[in-house]
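Worked example 3 (structure in, sequence out).
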């Protein structure tokens, strides 16, 4: 477990990290999100002992990173945004060097080396000079050194940078595999990646804590209970004519269309689903779908980290209140009709 308590990193009058506190429980895949300059990499560098904090405390498995640095670092494997590689070494030489630095017992090094090469799919590259590897393979070598020693906590800062789509999927699978026995902290700007693998997400803005929750709960809490997605088997003009007849509909936006269907975001006052169902039925326009509109993790992130302090504060305030899902009475199931 990692505990970050009232962490501050100040450069003159600028706060890179501003009184940040959070806890990462054992066995989690923990996503760390924030716009560029939010303080993610600074926080990770402090958590791993590479950078000293101005104030605050970081406890790694109960070890203070400043007072017991060796014990704390022994619990952590770290892949920084730019992997610390030696280009004149081969992949195998570099990993053996890292094994010595990590003080892995000699009788375990060969076995661990073979394991991390297999996990990161580097077996065929072990004799290659690092300088001759592509950016994607260099990223894999950095990931291999982070895993080496199989520490309890693995911290990955942008682990899929430079990887092709197939390699990205492989890294996601590897992260899930590692989470069976390790705690994984993952920073990324690819929100679909965070959504796919993370149990919890921490969002920071300007070095400050904004929210920590599951991706699903974040999307639900910031989804409007007064908005629906409506897909009808009709031309857009025909569907719009029906929408204008429903008093509870306060507005609508065309989201997309095909030759025989139109999809709208419909804003409403109260629950208009039953009225919409009957209105489209009377117009002989079959409803293909009628469901509450859910915010995506991308929309959540953009709202919470908006440059406008007022917009960000309003989004954060929504998270403090219980989610307001649309009542299920009236039209039955929320899915396809």
């Amino acid at each position: 477990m990692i505990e970050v308590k009232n962490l501050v990193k100040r450069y003159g009058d600028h706060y890179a990290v501003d009184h940040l506190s959070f806890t990462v429980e054992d066995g989690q895949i923990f996503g760390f999100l924030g716009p560029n300059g939010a303080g993610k990499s600074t926080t990770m560098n402090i958590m791993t002992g590479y950078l000293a904090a101005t104030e605050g405390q970081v406890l790694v498995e109960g070890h203070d990173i400043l007072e017991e640095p060796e014990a704390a670092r022994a619990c952590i494997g770290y892949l920084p945004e730019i992997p610390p590689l030696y280009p004149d070494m081969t992949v195998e030489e570099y990993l053996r060097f890292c094994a010595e630095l990590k003080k892995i017992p000699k009788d375990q090094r060969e076995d661990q080396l073979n394991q991390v090469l297999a996990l990161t799919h580097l077996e065929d590259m072990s004799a290659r000079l690092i300088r001759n590897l592509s950016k994607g393979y260099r990223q894999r070598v950095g990931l291999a050194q982070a895993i080496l020693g199989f520490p309890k906590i693995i911290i990955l800062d942008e682990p899929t940078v430079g990887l092709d789509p197939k390699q990205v999927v492989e890294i996601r699978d590897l992260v899930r595999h590692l989470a069976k026995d390790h705690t994984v902290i993952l920073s990324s700007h690819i929100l679909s990646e965070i959504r796919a693998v993370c149990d919890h997400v921490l969002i920071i803005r300007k070095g400050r804590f904004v929210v920590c929750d599951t991706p699903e709960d974040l999307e639900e809490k910031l989804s409007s209970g007064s908005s629906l997605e409506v897909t009808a088997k009709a031309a857009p003009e025909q569907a719009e004519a029906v929408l204008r007849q429903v008093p509870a509909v306060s507005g609508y936006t065309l989201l997309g269309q095909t030759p025989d269907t139109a999809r709208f975001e419909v804003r409403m006052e109260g629950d208009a689903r039953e009225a919409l169902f009957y209105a489209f039925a009377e117009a002989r326009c079959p409803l293909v779908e009628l469901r509450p509109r859910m915010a995506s993790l991308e929309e959540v992130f953009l709202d919470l980290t908006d440059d406008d302090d007022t917009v960000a504060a309003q989004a954060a305030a929504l998270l403090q209140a219980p989610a307001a899902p649309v009542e299920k009475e009236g039209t039955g199931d929320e899915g396809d009709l």
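Notes: The first strand starts at residue 2 and ends at 11. The radius of gyration is 25 Å.
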